[in-house]
Amino acid sequence: MSDAAVLDRLREHAILGDAPTQELEWLVERGELLHLEPGEILTSRVAGVVGALYVVLDGHLAIYVERGRGRRKVMEWFTGDVTGVLPYSRMKASPGTVYAETATDLWAVHRDHVPALPHECPDITARLVHVMTDRARSFTSADLQDEKTLALGRLAAGLAHELNNPASAIVRTSKALAERLVDVERAARALGAAGLTPNQEAAIDAVRDACLANPTRGWSTLERADREDDIAAWIEAQGGDALFAEPLAETAVTVEQLAQLAGVLEPAAINAALRWIATGCATRALALEIEHGASRVFDMVSAVKGFTHMDRAMVVESVDVGAGLRDTVTVLRSKAGTKAADVTIAVDGDLPQVQGMVGELNQIWASLIDNALDAIAEGGAVAVSARRDGRNVVVEIIDDGPGIPAEVRERIFDPFFTTKEVGQSVGLGLDVVRRSLERHDGSVDVESRPGRTVFRVRLPAEGVRSTGRFSRETQRIVIEGE
Fold first, then answer.
1. Local structure of 454: helix, strand or coil
2. DSSP state of 93
3. Of 47, 156, 194, 447, which residue is least crowded by CB atoms under 10 Å?
């Protein structure tokens, strides 16, 4: 095709058609015609850098990006559109694969000529900047939604697992408690039929109170077995039922206390007394297990509510950074558990609050801590800290993973860049962190070497000291792998 024919086609282009003739001629002199058949690839993420500015003269292009379960079409270009390398764009590699949906003609201006566009073709450059802005908005909107969906899916799976454990324990223990209450009623009737004196009742109550004061103890398996054997041997020596030894061995009661009780009871009443004490202690232990499970559910729900702030609008307010970090770690506890991770939190007691949107700041902490957990090996460690540094609040997330390779360290905050497997991320997590911090007048930097990677966030302090509700502490979370 002759230069004149190309110029005529450019003059018909929806975006560039009414640009000054000398600028269109500049594009003609430095470009070449490309023709793609349906299904042919123009650019791909695997191929590396995008090679040119592409003016769509005729046809239909579409970009597909892998999203775990398959590819997804995220953007299209038709006759009269422009794509590829644009002035001032930071994009280097294509975020996906661009296919020709129909037979397509393109005018391609090699990327080496694009830096000269603002000087040589100011009118065309202004038009292309608008195109770039629209493209960035479309990509960011679609991929940010995917990033949030992926993060929400991981978070929901972790929360479901984390909530399932105490919820299952509550159901299981409730059933056992219902059965145990029948034993308590029978034991009470048997004890009532023993015809005890007030002094004997007082002695039984004293032993039972001693058990209930500390109904369960953290005995080791060997210690528990030894205690159960000793108590069972004593009960059998009194002519009683050795089955009562198991619940009694879980408490702090001693054989000496039981022997003192036997000294004031008739032999026929000893078994009834032991049965009443054992069933009462077992019932209390089951009730405490239910309370513990319900408390875990309540704490998790509270942490999720604090993390998302579902009852608050997205408004700027005073934010307690320490509380947000704690809620975030609680929400990510399940993921830490899958790696038996050691997660520590240290927050200065005099940490001032910051001005910001609490939900958005919590999303920053979630992205950085989640990345740290991804980076570490089985049994690794992540340290989260918050301190005051002059007029700033500084949050550090440190992991002992292999570090960030030097060749990619400068790109980790670029949109669409990711080192994770396909479907695990769309490469916007750290870009979102950077842009969110810019909105909060904050910053983020990274230091990395093998065994120590530090993401450091700085936020301007509000100027008002926190209420002092949190003193400096180190919360160590050691979660066994599953």
1. strand
2. B
3. 156
